[in-house]
Amino acid sequence: MGSILVMENFEAHFPGLTGSTIQGWLVAALELGAWFGALFNGYLSDRISRKWSMQVAVIIFTVGTGLQCGAQSGNMLFAGRVVGGVGIGMFSMVIPMYQAEIAPPQLRGSLVSLQQLSITVGTCISFWLDYGMHFVGGTHCDPAGVPGEALNSAGTLEPYIAHGHTCLGEKAISWRLPLALQLIPAWILFFGMFFLPYSPRWLMMKHRDDDCIAALSKLRRLPADNNLLRAEYLEIKAAVMFDEETEAEYTSYAPQIFEGFGFTSVTTDLLATGVTGILQILFTLPAVFFLDNFGRKTFLITGAIGMCMCHVIVAGIDGTYENSWPTHVSAGWASVAFIWLFAVNFAYSWGPVTWVLTQEIFPNSMRSRGVSIVASTNWIFNFVIGLTTRDMLASMKYGTYIFFACFCAMGGLFVYFVVPETNNKTLEELDVYFGGDDTSIAQADRERMRRIEEELGLAGLQVEDFGTEKKGAVQEAEHGAESVNVQ
């Protein structure tokens, strides 16, 4: 939307949306809708499943996108942004949770990181699509019947004069088509979900044991009577039983627990933004490939340090040359370079890793609600930042970068001192892990889990005990594949 706002055809259609304040609200409207969508989907994904809540999100997102690409007034565009944002917020909450719940522990970080990679790929495509569509028919509106009069003394378009006149240059398709194309990945998701199973953990929460085993069998490509698969099924069942008993005991306390919780050219701007998108794609890949090798804390702390340093350097450059940019063009490009470097540090760390960690810190019974609160918090702060940053830059100037640098530094310190490493642990292990270690976890919880494990025949067993079974199953699958190839 940021790239579309500066297109002259768009300005001629919506002259009332050219002020910085109203544009801030238009951009932030999506985050406001996303905040509600993420919060609402915590309930819905528990109620109708992770799978079907994604389908509902696609429908809502489609309505919002239709309102945006077909908008004839500013109000219609605002409504589309809010409705579309609800769908996006629902996606942001349920997709990484579904990925985490279907993934084996050793691949969970990489698979959940793929969401952030998909986001950066989509963002990059949208930037370059906007850049290309910016040239459709020309880069200027050239309104029919008002030659010259539509331009001010600086040679830029006067939207109110151009409004109501057909643009002979830049076409409406320049901004309507990019908005409409959002529907393609949404509907790929919609139809693709018909081929994927329900979350095994959600099925177990609904006491659909046979369906849980069938879903695990499809996901792990193992027969239903495989010992390794049965062990995973029983671990999930034990965790769900533990959470249900704990929740039943403490549900009078649940409400209190949650209550406590310098470049002016449009073309140059679009080009610079497109480079940012490419860098974000490239540097999201380290999280996908190496997150499960080096751990969550390493990526988060390194990224926080990098982002903080970039903010400080940009603040220093801007503070030094803020009144002399025309004679210090190289300094301006240096600032842009460190903004790009900031995007790089975000792309491999806080962008993907925080979503991975979010899926790992809540017990099974509260995961959807917890994730929805985290996701909605993310969107409400996106809303606040989108609404205020423009004014902060105007009033605080380089101090804005110092402000955000402080938060990056605090984030790194928080991770170092407070956040535990969650790498390569099953979600069920983490339920206990976050309650404390073997010496500090509550005796009642320890006894409850021990009793449930004995009841299910899991007492004293480790997943490693089934390593031989797993190796045999893999060899059997490979032999079957070779047989098929021979035939």
Structure description:
By secondary structure, the chain is mostly helical. It has one domain: Up-down Bundle (Growth Hormone, Chain: A). It is built from 21 helices and no strands. The chain is globular and about 85 Å long.
* Beta strand %: under 5%
Let me know the number of strands: 0
Number of domains: 1
Query: How helix-rich are the residues, as a percent range?
Result: over 70%
User: Whole-number radius of gyration?
Assistant: 26 Å
**Named CATH architecture:** Up-down Bundle
Keywords: Membrane, Transmembrane, Transmembrane helix, Transport
GO molecular function, one term: carbohydrate:proton symporter activity
Protein name: Major facilitator superfamily (MFS) profile domain-containing protein
Main location: membrane
Q: How would you concisely characterize the structure shown here?
A:
One of its GO terms (molecular function) is carbohydrate:proton symporter activity. The chain is mostly helical.
Task: Give the topology.
Layout (H helix, E strand, L loop, with lengths): L7 H6 L6 H29 L1 H20 L4 H29 L5 H26 L25 H4 L10 H8 L2 H10 L7 H6 L3 H12 L6 H24 L3 H7 L5 H29 L1 H26 L7 H20 L1 H11 L6 H29 L3 H19 L9 H7 L9 H14 L10 H20 L1
Helix pairs in contact: 2-3, 2-4, 2-17, 3-4, 3-7, 3-8, 4-5, 4-16, 4-17, 5-7, 5-13, 5-16, 10-11, 11-20, 13-14, 13-15, 14-15, 14-16, 14-18, 15-16
Output the keywords:
MFS_Sugar_Transporters; transmembrane helix; Major facilitator superfamily (MFS) profile domain-containing protein; Growth Hormone, Chain: A; mainly alpha; transport; globular; transmembrane
